[in-house]
Design a protein that fits this description.
Blueprint: E1 2-4, H1 25-33, H2 38-47, H3 50-66, H4 72-152, H5 160-165, H6 170-302, E2 325-327, E3 330-333, E4 340-343, E5 346-348, E6 355-357, E7 362-369, E8 375-384, E9 387-399, E10 404-406, E11 411-415, E12 426-432, E13 435-437
């Protein structure tokens, strides 16, 4: 049971004391963890480091301790909110990484597309040049063939020798020889042009083959690049959707926290009243016990006998349940209400239904519904070391003893999670003259 700085207990009015609440903290985080799945979920897990996880785990443990006896609705919403907030930076980093990858993939895809366009243009020019060279070679070859037919095979005209010998005068002979030389030179030029055209055609064909190979390679690279860009775009879209969903979930949890906070404050006020009632009852019990002890001392002394007071101290009380101490006595800062509150007892981490035993001999002076404490038993142990010592056992699932004397180690109840409790445990308190003290002083 946690209290405010005035040691006031929180209540949970209107809850059925016979209902056993078996929620576990693990369930609290299921809602918050739903959005951390899929593509971005795997990115988040890779982005998280061992140190980050350890810090988050410790924060979760601290929050669980601070909210251990807060209403389940508020604690669930708040812890889910914190869990989601802790994952937002990684989700934002994953989105930024995915968007950067998308941009890089798009830039590469654009670059490959530009290279492919240039290569295709080069291929078109090379194809046209090869076709032009082929046509030129064909024309030159046709002229040479025609010349050879005319000059060397007659072809309807005289040969070079017959032309020279057919001269009618020396001057005519000289003219015919010059003409023959010109014809021979023209044939040589045509042959050289044919050779050059064929060499150029061969080179252009080799270039065309190279360009065609480059175009084929760039086409394959373009397909791969496009696929990578599309994959990166899908990843970025998924990461954006993931972040949007997480932010929407965060807003939902924040709204739930705001809605539950007002109810928590109202219940805290009711708890203050309930705690005042418990303290009033134990203070009255203490006064009566002190008066009875004083009368007993006086009677003993009057009879000439030695009065021996019962002394306690560490070890006087036995552990009320077989389990570890999971939350000690002391002041806590409530992370939602932003107030310091006294955790007025010591929590034993035990499952629901664990046997609860009387910590020492005493008398059950109260057993029933204790508001925020759920099912509660109050045992008065009498005057010990000059104070009236009482112990309380809270959040019980059921009673075994509800009145009368009890012995140390006697089974009196079973643990549970009734009242203000977010998980199965035993909240054990000790009071001296109606005031809460650290149970480890007596255990």
């Amino acid at each position: 049971m946690s209290t405010s700085v005035t040691n006031n207990r929180r209540a949970q009015p209107g809850r059925d004391p016979n209902v056993r609440h078996t929620k576990r903290w693990a369930a609290v985080f299921c809602a918050g963890a739903i959005v951390v799945s899929g593509v971005a979920g795997s990115t988040l897990s890779r982005a998280d480091t061992g140190g980050d996880k350890a810090r988050v785990d410790q924060q979760v443990q601290d929050l669980k301790a601070s909210l251990d006896e807060t209403s389940t609705a508020l604690a669930t919403a708040y812890l889910a909110l914190q869990d989601t907030q802790s994952k937002l930076p990684a989700a934002q980093a994953a989105l930024a990484q995915a968007q950067a990858a998308e941009q890089t993939a798009d830039q590469h895809n654009d670059a490959v597309a530009a290279q492919l366009a240039v290569a295709k243009a080069d291929q078109q020019r090379a194809t046209e040049t090869v076709a032009s060279n082929d046509s030129k070679v064909a024309q030159t070859q046709s002229l040479l063939d025609q010349f050879a037919a005319d000059v060397f095979q007659g072809g309807g005209g005289a040969s070079q020798m017959s032309v020279a010998l057919g001269a009618t005068s020396p001057q005519d002979f000289a003219d015919r020889v010059v003409l023959a030389d010109q014809v021979t030179s023209m044939a040589d030029d045509a042959l050289k042009e044919l050779q050059n055209a064929r060499a150029d055609a061969t080179a252009q064909q080799a270039y065309l083959t190279s360009v065609q190979s480059e175009v084929a390679r760039l086409k394959q690279e373009a397909e791969t690049s496009l696929g990578q860009a599309q994959t990166a775009r899908r990843s970025a879209t998924a990461a954006k959707a993931q972040l949007d969903a997480m932010q929407a979930q965060q807003a939902q949890y924040a709204a739930q926290v705001d809605a539950a906070r007002a109810g928590e404050e109202r219940q805290l006020q009711q708890a203050e009243v309930e705690q005042a009632q418990l303290q009033g009852m134990l203070e009255a019990q203490a006064k009566a016990a002190v008066a009875a002890e004083a009368a007993k001392r006086a009677a003993t002394v009057a009879a000439g006998q030695t009065y021996v007071a019962v002394t306690g101290g560490t070890g006087f009380l036995s552990h009320p349940a077989n389990g570890p101490i999971t939350s000690p006595f002391g002041m806590r800062f409530h992370p939602i209400l932003h107030v310091w509150k006294l955790h007025s007892g010591t929590d034993f981490g035990v499952p629901c239904g664990t046997p609860v035993y009387a910590a020492a001999d005493g008398t059950v002076i109260s057993a029933g519904w204790g508001g925020g404490d759920g099912n509660r038993i109050v045992v008065d142990h009498g005057i010990i070391s000059g104070v009236d010592l009482a112990s309380t056992y809270n959040h019980l699932s059921s009673f075994v003893v509800q009145s009368g004397p009890v012995k140390r180690g006697q089974l009196i109840a079973y643990s549970g999670t009734t009242g203000y409790s977010t998980g199965c445990h035993l909240h054990f308190e000790t009071l001296e003259n109606g005031q809460f003290v650290n149970p480890t002083k007596w255990l």
